[in-house]
Amino acid sequence: MNHFSKAEQDDWLTVYLKYLLFVFNFFFWVGGAAVLAVGTWTLVEKSGYLSVLASSTFVTSAYILIFAGALVMITGFLGFCAVLREQKSCLSTYFCLLLVIFLIELVAGVLAHLYYQKLSDELKQHLNQTLTENYGQPRAKEITYSVDQLQQDFRCCGSNSSADWEYSTYIQSPEAEGRRVPDSCCKTVVVLCGQRAHPSNIYKVEGGCITKLEHFLANHLLLMGAIGIGVACLQICGMVLTCCLYGRIQMQSY
Q1: Among candidate residues 4, 5, 240, 235, the one with its CA nearest the CA of residue 101
Q2: Which Gene3D superfamilies does the protein's record reference (predicted)?
Q3: How many CB atoms lie within 10 A of CB 209?
């Protein structure tokens, strides 16, 4: 009678672990979808700003998040199968994938943190150089488009101020047609509106585009880091639950 009671308790413990792992797996799958969505949104919706960055670390972090998010969603389906079938081989594979994803997100988090530390210095050194040397050049059409989009979206003009454009190769060239700033600096963009650099006509923002872009990138890095940490914490719980369920199934097989 006591032996039957012990076996019954073991069965209930296994069922309890299965339900816990099933619930975890659902939140894990949702977290993977969030990671994938943030990474994709960063590259697709905001890709216009990325060409003005000197380093590819921001882009690399986004790609790692996309890969990790896709792998999380695939692993989530495997986790459902592993819980339902109670196969030790499926649980072992599931645990290994959780560990791999955890390491991938750890790398992405380290990259994002390192890039966050040097973000301000990179923007100060590179953005002004991009505006003065590359904007409006025949071989830098992508950069020209990125700067125009940046100035319109953030309603700013110049790296630190609109005065930065005085030293631009483009503004000093005949192609500028007398513009003092690019047309994208104007509050209402029309052809040759950049000829008039008055505050009523162009954006005059304290700190220029550097401050705006730095704030935007910093928020993105923090968002990616927060989601990555949240999913990583879920993964630790999942690995513990997987080990417990694996142990219960192993004991019941004897």
Answers
A1: 235
A2: Tetraspanin
A3: 30
